[in-house]
Amino acid sequence: MTKRIGLYPGTFDPVTMGHYDIISRAMALVDRLVVAVAINRDKGPLFSLEERVSMIEQIGDDLREKHDCELVVVPFENLLVHCAREHNATVLIRGLRAVSDFEFEFQMVGMNRAIDPEIETMFLMADAEYQAIASRLVKEVCRLGGDVSRFVPPHVEVALKNKFKSKET
Ligand code: ADP
Questions:
Q1: 90 C-alpha to ligand 1 centroid (Å)
Q2: Strand order in the sheet with 91-95
Q3: Are 151 and 16 a contacting pair, CB within 8 Å?
């Protein structure tokens, strides 16, 4: 039987419980999930590409225990559909939050489909508890001294605090 391979792309700056929830749901649907971390210079990420990849890898063991699915984390800088082809993925996974995500995602699907009609995009929604979480807001809350422990895994909370501490000095 051919393996169903999914690709979940994003900036993951940093990975949140919202991403975790989407990765977990996707792993229940495919045989192999490739989490593709975009360099995304335009977004001026707080964490380096290596740090973002490593923070996702650190939640891998926990997720692999829960699902009978291979999980790999890779960096990517090329076109998304080319990255999907490179990894033999036939389905792109994206998370949907409120209506604000819809417009952009709608355009992305159209463009990606025009470039490669064989790659399907699948949208998943996180558990209600995690739906409002956005990396951008988590960074802002942590920078201003708020508690982000409900929004990110423990090692990410530590990394965030260290990042802002080092920026102060
Ligand atoms: P991007 O720059 O591609 O938007 P992000 O890391 O912000 O990168 O998000 C990656 C994907 O995860 C996107 O599809 C986004 O909608 C989804 N996502 C992020 N946070 C959540 C959340 N709390 N619930 C559901 N999906 C989410």
A1: 19
A2: 70-76, 32-38, 5-10, 91-95, 120-124
A3: yes
Partners of 72 in the β-ladder: 34
Q: DSSP states of 35-86 as a string?
A: EEEE--GGG--SS-HHHHHHHHHHHHHHHHHH-SSEEEEEEE-S-HHHHHHH
pLDDT for the residue 105: 92
Reported pTM: 0.95
Helix (H) or strand (E) holding 129: none
Can you tell me the distance from the alpha carbon of 106 to that of 5, in angstroms, rounded to the nearest whole number? 22
Residue 165 Cα to ligand 1 middle (Å): 26
Contact 44, 130 (CB under 8 A): no
The predicted pLDDT at position 75 comes to 96
Residue nearest to atom 10 of ligand 1 (CA): 10
